[in-house]
Write a structure and sequence with these properties.
about 300 residues; alpha/beta; eight-stranded mixed β-sheet; two-stranded antiparallel ribbon; 5 helices; 12 strands
């Protein structure tokens, strides 16, 4: 059986001038191209935006179940109202069934709907809620795009790449299984969000990679990986990856010629698509995530 992955945004399908799922075609096609050791498709991909019914509930998210999917890659791109109460309960139910979850958002309060997902949203820091416990980080890092506030770490231009630091011991998500080398590069973005590990989760979750701001020179967290645990109700929760920005996965950051929403006004770069090693690193990472999040 292939790994059944749901690529899901919290945006409406009608919001075409935004980061809808249509702008994640490179990710979708790459995952769909992977083969297992027998030459069969490794993954079965469903890619969609929210399509709420008349009650405001998305029919897929509100009834999310392991019978249909093994993983949810949640691109929380709203600034409020991106998940109904039933949508959130569906995601929580899926996680309690052992479903693996990649959760990612971006700067400031983008993706704040994830605050309704206690064991998933807890790894993300926002502007008006659930702020970084380090008060010194509650200030703008990207000072070039002045209308965006913290968290907004500047790792470089869209279309370029950043050199990351893998935290020892090196997590398997950051290792190339073919070469044994550690992944060095991620796509960059002018205002990445904040992620971290709450005190209650330090025995099973940790930061595995950091980046460095090109504005302040400050280190910031890129990825949190959380192992599967049993919750107080006896549910075996799936693994979780919390990523600082969805721009590590979107078409525009692999190749700016793919276009972007009209509100994006930062100058683009071209370094990633012209660097085979950087492209291979993010592809390896994506493959690793798909394998690691698969329920055991």
């Amino acid at each position: 059986m292939p790994i059944r992955i749901l690529l899901q945004t919290t945006l409406l399908k009608t919001e075409e001038d935004d980061w809808t799922i249509a702008r994640f075609s490179i990710l979708r096609d790459y995952l769909g191209s992977l083969k297992d050791s027998q030459g069969n498709p490794l993954c079965e991909i469903t890619a969609r935006d929210r399509e709420p019914d008349r009650n405001g509930d998305d029919p897929i998210l509100s009834n999310l179940d392991r019978d249909r999917f093994d993983q949810l890659w949640l691109f929380a791109l709203d600034v409020g109202g991106g998940l109904s109460a039933k949508d959130s309960q569906g995601i929580i139910h899926f996680h309690q069934q052992g479903g693996g979850i990649l959760s990612t958002r971006d700067h400031q309060d983008m993706g704040i709907s994830m605050c309704a997902l206690p064991e998933i949203g807890c790894y993300h820091y926002f502007h008006t809620q659930q702020q970084d416990p380090d008060d010194s980080r509650c200030c703008p890092d990207d000072t070039e795009t002045t209308y965006i506030s913290f968290p907004n770490y500047h790792s470089g231009c869209n279309g370029d790449y950043q050199e990351i630091t893998a935290i020892a011991p090196i997590h398997e998500l950051l290792q190339n299984p073919d070469t044994g080398e550690t992944i060095k590069y991620f796509p960059s973005h002018p205002h990445e969000g904040g992620v971290g590990v709450p005190d209650r989760s330090t025995n099973y979750a940790r930061v595995i990679a950091t980046g460095k701001s090109k504005i302040s020179g400050r280190s910031f967290n890129l990825v949190v990986a959380a192992e599967s645990i049993q919750d107080e109700a006896g549910n075996k929760l799936g693994r979780v990856v919390a990523q600082s920005t969805f721009h590590h996965f979107v078409d525009y950051n692999f190749d700016c010629d793919r276009g972007c929403p009209s509100f994006v006004d930062e100058p683009p770069g071209v370094r990633l698509k012209n660097n085979p090693q950087a492209l291979q690193d993010i592809q390896t990472y994506i493959t690793n995530v798909a394998l690691w999040l698969t329920p055991q």
